[in-house]
Specification:
- Helix content is 66%, strand content 0%.
- It contains 20 helices and no strands.
- By secondary structure, the chain is an all-alpha fold.
- 51% of the residues are buried.
- The model is unreliable at 469-478 and 483-495 (pLDDT under 50).
- The longest helix is centred in the middle third of the chain and has 29 residues, at 167-195.
- The radius of gyration is 26 Å and the shape is globular.
Length: 495
């Protein structure tokens, strides 16, 4: 298996993708009600067998992806492979997440005039528009206001309106948006890699062919894919001197999910470097101009959407839901329970403090990276990648697919460098953390840990097999006059 060609790995990955999708038809996140009768629950024995098949298929896909990145495939071959691996997922039920049901329900809420930033999908009439989607939303999200921006809600409203909120066509409509996001990511990755003198094929391998992206952006239809695509496209335009248009696209990305705002700081670094005049004036332009453009985009998008500015107050709602991948939440909760035992304080207080400190540390790291790139010590786009990874690592809520925020940028700047290697191993590991239904069982973390260990060992083996660079041996010092004596011997023919 380890010595196969890129075409063979393509076929192996396709088998894995098909197996994952077949398993997903019984073990995926099926809706609570499907009037078409296509995505309906099955018996426990079949569901368990389907889940095993899905995990086996996922493993084949991960192995094929890992080896494909070392097979030296061309850009064209990689694009063909992306089509092969993506195609089986296009008609599948939601995989690894129930978020798409929230999107459809929120689109129905906008149509019916509910304030999506105050109430959750539970306000919808069970028998009315979006009722089936609302009934399928994951438990704690049923009463949670939308943390998404108006631009995405307009798209969700359009899909819900066009499909009448009927589950199957509505889900497939949201998948079309996910596919469009993937196409945008591919377009941007190729150009960013070209701008940085990197391999386009390697960038596509890590940033688009990545199983973590395929499963959670195409299979699960997370809107992070759209945010990433718009953000990357904005950075491409900014690198080409079209920073105003680039800032508009980043502004739209922010109106999907707010973390895209980090890109504005590094677009500002690019603007500062390209501007002329005194440094203070160039710095002021870089710090203020992209942000002002994005603010205008946010205001216009909000007014046109008619959803109001409530999104400004719901950016922290996700942090109220505990996720085991958030280091600051885990540390804060553990500290809170310890303090509760000692002095009787509320554990939530300590958790909130640690989460806030984590965000403050992330902000400090992001500013430090921006300063280093401003001083030409770090390439701005690579600094953006590291900043997004820092934000994910220190956020109060972390989901496996959040890793894609920074991975997509690293793919264009350092796919096979240190950062690229780290996120490749993490991608191969985190894809196991979530069950096809979207739950996070304990064995998912065990599988992720095992995959991470195996990936690390493979990387170490690859590094150990690289031949060391052999430097020429240093010349030993010669006695004084030895060089002249040698020249005389050459001239006399006595050597």
């Amino acid at each position: 298996m380890w010595g196969m060609s890129a075409v063979a790995y393509r076929r192996l990955g396709t088998v894995g993708s098909v197996a994952t999708v077949i398993g997903g038809w019984a073990a995926g996140k099926l809706p609570a009600r499907d009037p078409w009768g296509l995505w309906v629950p099955h018996g426990s024995a079949l569901t368990t067998s389907a889940a095993v098949l899905a995990y086996a298929g996922l493993t084949l896909l991960v192995v094929a992806w890992w080896q494909y990145g070392r097979a030296g495939a061309s850009v064209r071959e990689t694009l063909v492979t992306l089509v092969w691996w993506t195609a089986p997922m296009l008609l599948a039920p939601p995989l690894y997440s129930a978020d798409v049901y929230s999107y459809i329900a929120q689109g129905a809420m906008v149509i019916e005039g509910h304030d999506v930033y105050v109430v959750g999908p539970s306000v919808l009439d069970p028998g009315g528009l979006g009722g089936d989607a609302a009934a399928s939303v994951g438990g704690h999200w049923t009463d949670t206001p939308a943390p998404y921006g108006p631009f995405f809600l307009v798209l969700a409203r359009g899909v819900t309106w066009l499909t009448g909120g009927t589950i199957v066509p509505a889900v497939l409509g949201m998948r079309l948006i996910a596919v469009a996001a993937l196409l945008l990511i591919v377009w941007a990755l190729r150009r960013l890699a070209r701008e940085h003198g990197r391999s386009e094929g390697a960038a596509l391998w890590l940033g688009a062919l990545n199983p973590l992206l395929l499963m959670h952006v195409i299979g699960g239809m997370h809107n992070d894919g759209l945010m990433i695509g718009l953000m990357l496209a904005g950075v491409v335009l900014a690198m080409r001197g079209r920073w105003i248009t680039g800032s508009v696209l980043v502004g739209l990305a922010m109106m999907v999910k707010s973390p895209a705002a980090v890109a504005l700081l590094f677009i500002g670094v690019l603007v500062t470097g390209a501007a002329t005049g005194p440094f203070a004036r160039r710095l002021a332009k870089g710090l203020l101009a992209p942000g002002l453009v994005a603010v205008v985009v946010a205001v216009v998008a909000t007014l046109l959407a008619g959803t109001g500015f409530g999104w400004l107050g719901t950016q922290s709602v996700a942090g109220t839901i505990h996720t085991a991948l958030s280091a600051t939440s885990d540390v804060g909760l553990a500290l809170g329970h310890l303090l509760h035992l000692v002095i009787g304080t509320d554990p939530a207080t300590a958790k909130s403090v640690v989460q806030t400190l984590g965000l403050a540390a992330a902000a400090a790291l992001i500013l430090h990276l921006a300063w280093r790139s401003l001083r030409d010590r770090l390439q701005p786009v690579h600094a953006l990648a590291l900043a997004l990874l820092a934000l994910v690592a220190l956020s109060p809520m972390v989901q496996p697919w959040y890793l894609l925020w920074g991975t997509a940028v690293v793919a264009a700047t350092s796919a096979h460098g240190r950062a690229g290697t780290v996120v490749a191993v993490l991608s191969a590991a985190l894809v196991y953390e979530t069950h096809p239904t979207g739950s996070t069982p304990p064995y998912g973390f065990a599988l992720a840990a095992a995959a991470g260990v195996i990936g690390t060992l493979l990387v170490r083996r690859e590094l150990s097999r690289q031949e060391p660079v052999r430097l020429p041996a240093p010349r030993t010092a010669e006695p004084e006059g030895a060089e002249e004596a040698r020249i005389r011997r050459v001239g006399s023919g006595s050597v």
